[in-house]
Amino acid sequence: MKWIAPALAYLAVFLGLFVLHSAWAALLGFHAAIIGSLLIARPGIPLSTLLKNSNKKWIALNLLVCGTSGFALFFLWDVFGIANDLPSQVAALGLNARTWLPFIAYFALVNPFVEEYFWRAYLGSATKRLHRSDLLYAGFHALILIRKAPIVSILFAVAALALAGWFWRQVAREEDGGLLAPVLGHMAADLTILLAIYNMAT
Questions:
Q1: Which of 22, 106, 171, 179 is most solvent-facing, going by the fewest CB within 10 Å?
Q2: Structural domain tally of the chain?
Q3: Cβ atoms of 163 and 49 closer than 8 Å
Q4: Looking at the domain assignment, is residue 37 inside a domain?
């Protein structure tokens, strides 16, 4: 199941973006694939792990480091070569004045819990080395970035996300599996990145 689950998550994102042409379908399908896989696998990892934290320094560090993601994207927008037609691409995925803010709220508040439990707790590892779960976590983002940025920027983003996945795993390892700091860091990254995109695409 640990090999099938990531494939299902990737498939859900692909179908949502390229078949249904809907950001909501991609996100909700992604979450459905993950939750369905977890219900079948029954990993036995308590959900309380998502709220476990013993050292506030990890929370502060995650919020500080990950919260800069959106600011970096905003100020380096032209450097990354983001597509000029991004506003129309985003609109074609169903994100408009009525749906953008609910999408951002759901993505920033719900997605970090789902992803951290899946990629770091269920598929993760205690190794200090780069792990396949870090690469799998980063890889599906390439689907999201197709046609929205040049290949060099996509590869850079995937590498940066693999590093982020590795970092969040190390924090969880230091916290004896506790995921609150990674969840909050992930939340800060998602929120600031989406706000930067919203600002530039509307």
A1: 106
A2: 1
A3: no
A4: no
